[in-house]
Design brief:
The structure is a homodimer of 360-residue chains.
Chain A (H helix, E strand, L loop, with lengths): L2 H22 L1 E5 L5 E2 L22 H6 L7 E6 L4 E7 L10 H5 L1 E7 L2 E8 L5 E7 L7 E6 L6 E9 L5 E2 L5 E8 L1 H4 L10 H9 L1 E7 L8 H9 L4 E5 L6 H18 L5 E4 L11 H23 L5 E4 L20 H21 L3
Parallel strand pairs in A: 11-12, 11-13, 13-14, 14-15
Antiparallel strand pairs in A: 1-9, 2-3, 3-8, 3-10, 4-7, 4-9, 5-6, 5-8
Chain lengths: 360, 360
Amino acid sequence: MDLKKSVSIFILILCLAYSAFAQKKSIYYPIDEKFMIGKIEKTPELFHRIDTSAYAGLPKRVSYLATHAAGLAVGFKSSSTKIRLKWCVKGNGANGNLTPIAQKGFDLYIKHNGKWQFAGAAAPKDTCSDVEIISNMDGSEKEFLLYLPLYDELKNLEVAVDENTTISAIAQPFKRRILVYGSSIVQGASASRPGLNYTSILTRNTGYQFLNLGFSGSAKMEPEVANMVASIPADVYLLDCIPNSSPEEITARTNYLVKTIRQKHPSAPIILMQSLVREHGYFNAKVGTHVSDQNRAAQAEYQRLLQEGITDLYFLPSTNFLGHDHEGTVDGTHPNDIGFERMVKDIQPKILDILGKYKL
Amino acid sequence: MDLKKSVSIFILILCLAYSAFAQKKSIYYPIDEKFMIGKIEKTPELFHRIDTSAYAGLPKRVSYLATHAAGLAVGFKSSSTKIRLKWCVKGNGANGNLTPIAQKGFDLYIKHNGKWQFAGAAAPKDTCSDVEIISNMDGSEKEFLLYLPLYDELKNLEVAVDENTTISAIAQPFKRRILVYGSSIVQGASASRPGLNYTSILTRNTGYQFLNLGFSGSAKMEPEVANMVASIPADVYLLDCIPNSSPEEITARTNYLVKTIRQKHPSAPIILMQSLVREHGYFNAKVGTHVSDQNRAAQAEYQRLLQEGITDLYFLPSTNFLGHDHEGTVDGTHPNDIGFERMVKDIQPKILDILGKYKL
């Protein structure tokens, strides 16, 4: 072998080695405000849902749950062949009805033929984790939508891409603001991953932005919370707070909640949802009666508000939310992915009908 | 008030107090062999799936996973108004893609109008737990089916009922034996609760007993495992082991697996399933190619077996297992409840057609 040939081969080997090495290296970019999708308002902590210091008298549990990143997402584009995530959560205990991916992890969607398509998920390894969520992609520029943990406080997040590429923010992909105030079901229990939360499914399906104000076990329509909900600007208010309120609370508080919203937003449609039927309530008579009483009270309040002259108010009965084979929940109360799929199938056309009337 | 009246009232109060107290008290019954549903064979440890000491040369991981209670259930009847469970699991680490209810917990079904209807779920509190899974029932005698943890070893289990009632075993509710050998997907990842495992859904839907031989990440058709599978008596053999085997392993081992089963069971239908498509494989080219190669190899082996004269052999292509909106998995690989629902919808009629041919 002559010297020239030897040198060429040596350089070729060097190049291959470098390229293999380069492929492995990732550069981490901290996520800041410009990447955020689904934010309800500006908050001192980026991954909180509301700035609780701005609202007087919020119940402690509501303030705490507002630190959970449910419904928030990060949008970016990159031509990286892989995406890594490095993050820390505060680290509250495991929920029996949630996967760690849903509670403290992520899922990733990629814009494909004009639609957001699921591409991968990342499970936490510990309070802090560093996980590759997708790899071996073709290196063309893509738009990504990364959903954040549903049931923990996200303390920080970095997204890593190939060192020869970068990430940049995408334009807001969703229109209008539909504020969804509700319970654990709105917060996302028990989707198998963050993006299968029902507000996120509705957002991807319709292109409208459903903003997540779900407070697990704590959507009780207290006057202070009603004031907070009403003070947040939105085009539509979707109220899914019946499951957490007792029949007495529903009778005492629904009227104030709806009227307070109406006062601040004279023409915004307000949609009141019944509570989904709790599947264990078919055998647990106490639970069955409680849900019936809640839903009767909600319907009565709806009728009373109409009689009092409140307009642009709508009511979604829960009869078909979970289907009829009793398999739509993980624990009798919280929809599993089947339950959320059925719920969306039932309410999405009804909500779109309402939005259509207002040319939103 | 006269003395007689006072004494009567006193006795009445005593009775009410006693009845309230009595309602709270539960008697715990240890679960033994007569209650077990879905057992593949007698095992030294009640909640193991196979007696691994009976099979020479099983891979260590397969022997370990056989200690997980996936697919097993406990059947009993009682007229208790509530059911409590006391249990310990061995306590392996949390799986990122499973709820604690599915991994180390339970769900309960009740026979209602001739069908098994979901009634409640129990999440673990720790390695050992004591949890009420249903309460406030009407006190009529009911048949219960309690599904055991999918991804941990269940060390012991007691079922508690009201002290004035008892529990007794029910007759085997399911007919025939369809042995399902496969991967994590057969073991139940990632159903939201144990009873939504696809073998359990098929069992409830069809009345046929689908026996769970799912070994997470370890269904590789090694000859020793093939010998074990073939030595277990069954009416039908359903093979869902393609996801864990490399294309080379599929080419090298499928033939031996099928022929060994055929040799021991000359006329039993054998059904070979393709691997479900991995949803992250649409973007991860390496994963996409791998699954295509696996499925091509599986189909080639099926054709080769037919050409070699093996009869009563069937093939289920995976094209429609997960539907086509890419939302049927928790992590790209493991079906969520939507994925399992779709998979069952696709394969159940095909399996029933095959069973029909054999008048099983």
